[in-house]
User: Which sequence fits this backbone?
């Protein structure tokens, strides 16, 4: 397996780009790359050429922290530092809903595989909020319990939930916090299952393996990538190689590789069978905030694509094979 | 014990030798050791051949082993064994044991100790390591290696106080080890002993100037202690050494930020902006080096926001005419700079938040930056239903950290709803009741809500909790509007606020209060408003107030520019004002006034014209208009405007009306003259005349008028003139009025003025004005006695010079003039002459000091220079021109002359000619008759022809006399005669000259002229004639005509009973007696001399001596003795002449022969001693020698 640089767009945004996600392809158009930036805008890009689809959509008053696309490819959501989530139609760029949460209580987001629920890492509320995607109402809040014997944290309510991930079957939800704890929930029963131990620094990104719903990859500030058995609550493996925080992780569609972006300004491709970095991309000149593999479907078919966005205001697109 | 091995040439020989020694005595451990050592060293030297080296070392180890076995107390052998096990046979266990043994045997063995510790460290046995070190250190205080190691380990384990002890001990052993000093500094630092830490770090840096850690840490301590400059210095050093060290960059940035905050606090915005720019660069470098340090981004944001809040508006002074477009663009670009700095601060904070979203304070930082940006955008969103973004972000901080009181205060500031504000502030107070900022903001909130009482209480609380917080002071000063405090109090409060926090809003408020309380010209205010203009150039008020301040400092050009800028600002940002037009009018009126004051009457008139066209010319404008027109010479128009103004008077408020009336009167007086203004004033209703300004005007007009047309208005005025200052002024004016007499308009009746002022002074004894005025009048009264009174009634103010009413002289000047005047006829130093003046002795040096003090205070004051030159000249004159004083006096005179003088001024040219005469006199006295003539003729040329040229000519006379140029002398003398001066002294001098140089034997001309002059002098004419007789007598004496001289002096004595004249008369009589002219002269002499003795206030010398002689001739021995004794006391001790001692000898001899019990002065010493002292003083007198001879023979 390898990555080959396809295209890079300098100054894709006016400021640092913090978030990236792929919008699945629909019948009428291929998959699009969605990016959110400190310049308070969200942009969409056509793959391979990386040309902007439409003018930048505004509507946030502060930097965009996270973007998420509905599996249908019609709707996307973006959240900003002021804790507003803007839900908009991909093709018309029209706002569908504005979800308001108390300030500091929105961080990253993900739609569930079926597209009925939007899970939002609840930041300072120490919980994961679930929004219904038809009514756009808050349906559930899953609080992260304090682990036994943990010291009371000085940051108010305890934890700051940074990341969230749906298992591919949509049954389980994992969330990562600033103190390194990872909580796994059973969504159907709205029940906390257990913690996954091993990290002691903020877990900024996590993803379930698309082929194996039990396997969870986490990216943490301690420069390691962990591989958990989410059900057996055990650490399966740890991969190290980054020299600074690991900011983002995504798994390839075949489940054979994961890609990570890091504060050390690199993008690494990890071979899961060997559990080592097989390739390091150094084309970014600042920390890489997000990496994303393109979902299947649409034209282009089985050709793998990886996108990465960085503080250096650029987007890079790689061919994954 | 052990001979050190110096390697001989043949190593093999040595080895063999060693082997032989060992063989001869195989049980000696020393021999084993020696050979082991030799082999070990050899093994070390052949390190490149591993096998051979190993072999050698193994052999060495065998010998060491043998040595150790034979002598188990030899630590060195164990050490080498340890080395062997560690390096060659790699057996850590054994090695450690050997080392342990070595250390146990010799705790000073640092090599073994260090090696042991390294071994233990490698195995991670930290506690064991500590135990080893501790044991060694306990065994010997000189085991410095152990203390060092222990210290490091304790630092590592954060046992700071123990570490300090160990490290200090170790430093005694290794004082030049920078590591130790650094570790010690760190330990002190962590214990909070900052000064000690700085010293230790400093020592480390001194030893090794590349100690980054020490530099950075001591820099941080300096920042913590508030000495930013030093800290920045340290960080800069560190940065140069390690350009990629993030902490150095961050430290530099935060140091510069702290420094700039100090600058901002003191109002130096430009400086602060420069520092912040540098700081921002340093922060940028550090964020580039490591992008995921949220604190770096936060610092970057802090720097940017501070920059945005202090960036000063560039005041490129454009000159008199200002370009509106340029101004506009400069303000806009200023705003843009602030705005973009704000935006980039917002971005930096967001990056920080993105990296660490759990940090609550970053939410509040974002909130603040958003609020700042909103304020620049002038976004005024009144939609109270929606949560504003800054509010939301402040809330974000609170959600994460609800117990932070400052966050609550911040929410209270940023919230848009009053209820929320109040809630948030009260929440903060619940968390900490003594949170002064919360109280202050609560006060503001209540003020805005109109709850004045509550507001006041809140501010009071805030103020008492933290007096250094600017905000409550500013809030208190605002309560002036509610009538809760006086303008002065409000001004003081606001001033304090501005001094603690130079915020543009406070500064504008301060100036507004200064206008009300009359502090406009205070330097504090001008500084404040300058800063306000820098920080709020878009506020028309700041420019307008700046103009007012400049105007009050008579800097009209700047004021004009400021007003024009204010007008531009009004045009540019009209949305700031609701009452735009009235502001516009105010500024325009101000502009017109400044233009008028600056002398641009045309522009001022134009401004008023414009205002008139628009219909906004109010009473103030009308006044300015009238003045401008008058200045332009358009009198009719000016009068028309004045009339219009007069029509409006009745509708004006009290002070405005008074000002307007005053202006009308002044204009009328200047344009149409006295009579028309009198008629106008009569037309005014009397209630308009009740104010101070008008009463002064009426009073002054009345004073000028001999017909007293306005007299009827006066009494009402003086009754109502309540204010003390005004009453005094009225008295002063009335005194001037008294001077102007109806009878003789040409001369002034000074006596009447003096009388009036005396009464006034009795009423107001502490009024400086009346005192000065009285002093001035007394000075010009011409009465000899008056001078001293003048000096006594004028008080020299202590401290700074009080402003004196224009046209009046300073107390200093009066004193100086008095001193000069006194010096003319009164000796002022008893050392050089014997004053006979009855008016008491003047303290000449006091005046000299006074004048010097004055000149020191006002070096530019020509008058002081002039008076000082004169008084020094007088001193020189009195002391008979000693060289030193001549030089000083000449310098002073020339210095006073060197300044350029406008010659048209009569008074100035007179004083200048007087100085020239002084210069010429000094030249004459120092033997430079050419210079003397030069100066005198200069003086002649300078004076206008109609003035009194007598003295200049006289000076020329004297110069010719010195040169013995008699023809020219005669010429000048004739000129002098032709002058026909009115001064008696001139004639006396001429008489003297005539006789001295036998110029003309025409006594009559001089005599008759003198009589005429003296008669004019009134009461002092007898004095003058006495003086004249004295000169006559002098002339007779030159002619050896003693009889006539005696007659003349007898006349003089009749005219004036001055003791000097009497003495002269007595002396001449005695001379006549000596010449055996007749005994009647003896009795005359006795009479005169007795009178002289009685008249003089001090004992005059010679008088008593002569009298004693006369009495002796008459045979009165007792009187002779008595008078001689008096004579003895008449002389100052150091100036008694030899003859006096001789006389005392006579006296002593007399008393010794009689041997009476009278213990007079003469009997205190033996006659021989008296004669000896006389000889000692004057050894050339043969008479004394002869007597001495007689005494001893």
Assistant:
């Amino acid at each position: 397996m390898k990555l080959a640089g396809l295209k890079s767009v300098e100054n894709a945004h006016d400021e640092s780009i913090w978030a990236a996600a792929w919008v699945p392809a629909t019948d009428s158009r291929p998959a699009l790359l969605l990016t959110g930036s400190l310049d308070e805008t969200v942009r969409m890009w056509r793959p391979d050429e990386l040309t902007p689809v439409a003018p930048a959509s505004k509507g946030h008053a502060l930097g965009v922290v996270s973007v998420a696309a509905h599996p249908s490819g019609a709707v996307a959501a973006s959240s900003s530092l002021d804790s507003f989530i803007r839900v908009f139609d991909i093709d018309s760029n029209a706002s569908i809903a504005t979800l308001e949460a108390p300030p500091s209580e929105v961080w990253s987001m993900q739609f569930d595989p079926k597209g009925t629920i939007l899970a939002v890492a609840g930041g300072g509320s120490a919980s994961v909020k679930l929004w219904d995607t038809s009514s756009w109402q808050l349906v559930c809040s899953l609080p992260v319990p304090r682990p036994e014997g943990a010291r009371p944290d000085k940051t108010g309510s305890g934890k700051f939930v940074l990341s969230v991930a749906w298992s591919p079957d949509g049954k389980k939800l994992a969330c990562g916090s600033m103190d390194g704890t990872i909580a796994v929930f059973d969504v159907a029963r709205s029940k906390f299952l257990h913690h996954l131990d091993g990290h002691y620094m903020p877990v900024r990104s996590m993803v379930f393996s698309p082929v194996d719903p039990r396997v969870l990859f986490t990216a943490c500030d301690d420069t390691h990538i962990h591989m958990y058995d989410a059900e057996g609550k055990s650490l399966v493996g740890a991969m190290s190689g980054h020299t600074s925080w690991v900011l983002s992780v995504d798994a390839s569609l075949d489940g054979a590789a994961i890609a990570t972006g890091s504060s050390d300004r690199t993008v690494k491709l990890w071979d899961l069978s060997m559990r080592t970095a097989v390739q390091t991309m150094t084309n970014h000149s600042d920390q890489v905030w997000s990496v994303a593999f393109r979902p299947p479907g649409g034209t282009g078919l089985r050709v793998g694509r990886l996108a990465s966005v960085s503080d250096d205001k650029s987007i890079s697109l790689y061919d994954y094979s | 014990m052990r001979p050190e091995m110096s390697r001989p040439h043949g190593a093999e020989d040595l080895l063999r030798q060693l082997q032989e020694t060992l063989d001869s005595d195989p049980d000696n451990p020393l021999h084993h050791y020696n050979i082991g050592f030799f082999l070990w060293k050899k093994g070390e030297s052949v390190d490149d051949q591993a096998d051979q080296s190993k072999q050698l070392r193994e052999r060495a180890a065998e010998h060491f082993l043998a040595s150790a076995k034979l002598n188990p107390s030899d630590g060195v052998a164990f050490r080498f064994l340890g080395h062997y096990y560690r390096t060659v046979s790699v057996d850590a266990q054994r090695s450690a044991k050997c080392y342990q043994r070595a250390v146990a045997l010799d705790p000073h063995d640092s090599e073994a100790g260090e090696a042991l510790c390294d071994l233990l460290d490698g195995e991670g046995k930290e506690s064991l390591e500590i135990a080893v070190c501790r044991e060694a250190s306990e065994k010997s205080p000189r085991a410095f290696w152990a203390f060092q190691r222990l210290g490091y380990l304790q630092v590592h384990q954060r046992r700071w106080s123990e570490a300090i002890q160990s490290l200090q001990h170790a430093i005694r052993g290794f004082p030049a080890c920078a590591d130790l000093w650094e570790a010690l500094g760190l330990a002190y630092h962590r214990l909070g002993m900052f000064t000690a830490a700085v010293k230790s770090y400093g020592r480390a840096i001194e030893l090794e100037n590349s100690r980054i850690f020490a530099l950075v840490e001591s820099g941080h301590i300096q920042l913590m202690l508030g000495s930013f400059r030093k800290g920045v210095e340290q960080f800069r050093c560190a940065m140069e050494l390690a350009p990629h060290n993030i902490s150095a960059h961050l430290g530099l940035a935060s140091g510069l930020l702290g420094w700039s905050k100090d600058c901002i606090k003191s109002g130096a915005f430009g400086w602060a902006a420069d520092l912040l720019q540098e700081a921002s660069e340093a922060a940028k470098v550090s964020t580039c080096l490591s992008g995921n340090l949220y604190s770096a981004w936060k610092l970057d944001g802090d720097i940017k926001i501070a920059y945005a809040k202090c960036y000063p508006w560039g005041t490129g002074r454009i000159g008199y005419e200002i370009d509106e477009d340029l101004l506009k663009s400069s303000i806009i670009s200023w705003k843009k700079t602030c705005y973009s700095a704000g935006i980039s601060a917002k971005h930096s904070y967001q990056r920080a938040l993105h990296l660490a979203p759990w940090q609550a304070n970053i939410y509040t930082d974002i909130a603040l930056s958003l609020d700042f940006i909103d304020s620049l955008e002038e976004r005024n969103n009144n939609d109270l239903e929606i949560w504003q973004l800054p509010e939301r972000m402040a809330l974000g901080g609170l959600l994460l950290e609800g117990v932070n009181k400052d966050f609550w205060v911040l929410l209270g500031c940023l919230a848009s709803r009053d209820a929320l504000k109040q809630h948030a502030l009260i929440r903060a107070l619940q968390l900490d009741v003594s949170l002064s900022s919360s109280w202050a903001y609560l006060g503001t909130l209540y003020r805005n809500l109109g709850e004045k009482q509550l507001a006041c209480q809140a501010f009071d609380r805030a103020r008492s909790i933290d007096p250094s917080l600017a905000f409550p002071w500013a809030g208190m000063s605002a309560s002036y509007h509610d009538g809760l405090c006086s303008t002065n109090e409000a001004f003081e409060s606001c001033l304090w606020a501005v001094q603690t926090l130079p915020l543009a809003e406070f500064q504008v408020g301060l100036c507004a209060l200064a206008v009300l309380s009359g502090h406009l010209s205070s330097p504090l205010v001008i500084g404040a408003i300058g800063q306000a203009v820098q920080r709020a150039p878009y506020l028309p008020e700041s420019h307008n107030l700046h103009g007012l301040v400049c105007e009050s400092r008579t800097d009209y050009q700047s004021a004009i520019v400021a007003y024009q800028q204010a007008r531009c600002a009004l045009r540019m940002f009209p949305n700031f004002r609701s009452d735009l037009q009235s502001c516009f009018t105010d500024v325009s009126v101000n502009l017109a006034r400044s233009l008028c004051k600056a002398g641009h009457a045309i522009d001022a008139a134009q401004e008023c014209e414009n205002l008139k066209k628009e219909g906004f010319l109010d009473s103030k404008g009308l006044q300015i208009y009238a003045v401008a027109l008058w200045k332009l010479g358009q009198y009719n128009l000016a009068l028309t405007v004045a009339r219009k103004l007069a029509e409006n008077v009745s509708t004006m408020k009290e002070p405005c009306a008074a000002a307007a009336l005053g202006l009308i009167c002044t204009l009328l007086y200047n344009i149409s003259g006295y009579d028309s203004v009198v008629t106008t004033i009569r037309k005014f209703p009397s209630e308009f005349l009740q104010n101070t300004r008008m009463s002064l005007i009426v009073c002054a007009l009345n004073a000028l008028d001999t017909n007293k047309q306005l007299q009827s208005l006066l009494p009402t005025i003086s009754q109502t003139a309540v204010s003390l200052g005004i009453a005094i002024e009225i008295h002063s004016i009335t005194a001037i009025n008294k001077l102007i007499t109806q009878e003789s308009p040409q001369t002034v009746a000074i006596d009447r003025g003096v009388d009036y002022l005396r009464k006034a002074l009795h009423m107001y004894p502490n009024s400086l004005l009346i005192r000065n005025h009285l002093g001035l009048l007394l000075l010009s009264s011409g009465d000899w006695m008056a001078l001293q009174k003048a000096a006594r009634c004028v008080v020299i103010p202590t401290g700074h010079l009080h402003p004196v009413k224009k046209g009046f002289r300073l107390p200093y000047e009066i004193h100086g003039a008095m001193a000069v005047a006194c010096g003319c006829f009164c000796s002022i130093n008893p050392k050089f002459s014997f004053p006979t003046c009855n008016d008491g002795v003047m303290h000449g040096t006091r005046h000299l000091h006074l004048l010097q003090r004055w000149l020191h205070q006002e070096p530019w004051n020509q008058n002081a220079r002039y008076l000082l030159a004169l008084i020094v000249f007088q001193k020189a004159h009195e002391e008979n021109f000693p060289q030193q004083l001549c030089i000083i006096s000449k310098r002073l005179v020339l210095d006073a002359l060197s300044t350029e003088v406008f010659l048209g001024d009569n008074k100035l040219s007179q004083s200048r000619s007087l100085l020239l005469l002084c210069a010429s006199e000094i030249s004459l006295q120092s033997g430079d008759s050419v210079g003397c003539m030069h100066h005198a003729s200069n003086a002649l040329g300078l004076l206008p022809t109609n003035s009194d040229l007598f003295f200049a000519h006289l000076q020329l006379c004297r110069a010719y006399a010195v040169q013995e140029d008699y023809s020219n002398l005669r010429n000048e003398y004739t000129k002098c005669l032709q002058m026909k001066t009115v001064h008696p002294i001139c004639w006396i001098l001429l008489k003297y000259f005539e006789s001295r140089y036998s110029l003309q034997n025409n006594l009559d001309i001089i005599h008759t002229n003198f009589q005429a002059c003296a008669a004019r002098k009134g009461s002092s004419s007898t004095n003058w004639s006495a003086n004249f007789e004295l000169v006559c007598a002098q002339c007779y004496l030159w002619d050896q005509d003693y009889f006539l001289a005696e007659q003349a002096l007898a006349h003089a004595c009749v005219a004036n009973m001055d003791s000097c004249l009497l003495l002269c008369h007595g002396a001449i009589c005695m001379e006549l007696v000596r010449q055996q002219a007749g005994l009647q002269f003896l009795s005359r002499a006795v009479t005169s001399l007795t009178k002289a003795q009685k008249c003089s206030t001090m004992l005059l010398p010679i008088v008593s001596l002569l009298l004693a002689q006369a009495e002796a001739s008459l045979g009165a021995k007792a009187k002779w003795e008595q008078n001689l004794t008096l004579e003895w006391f008449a002389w100052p001790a150091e100036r008694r002449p030899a003859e006096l001692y001789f006389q005392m000898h006579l006296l002593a001899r007399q008393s010794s022969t009689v041997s009476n019990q009278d213990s007079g002065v003469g009997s205190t010493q033996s006659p021989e001693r008296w004669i000896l002292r006389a000889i000692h003083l004057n050894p050339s007198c043969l008479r004394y020698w002869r007597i001495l001879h007689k005494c001893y023979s």
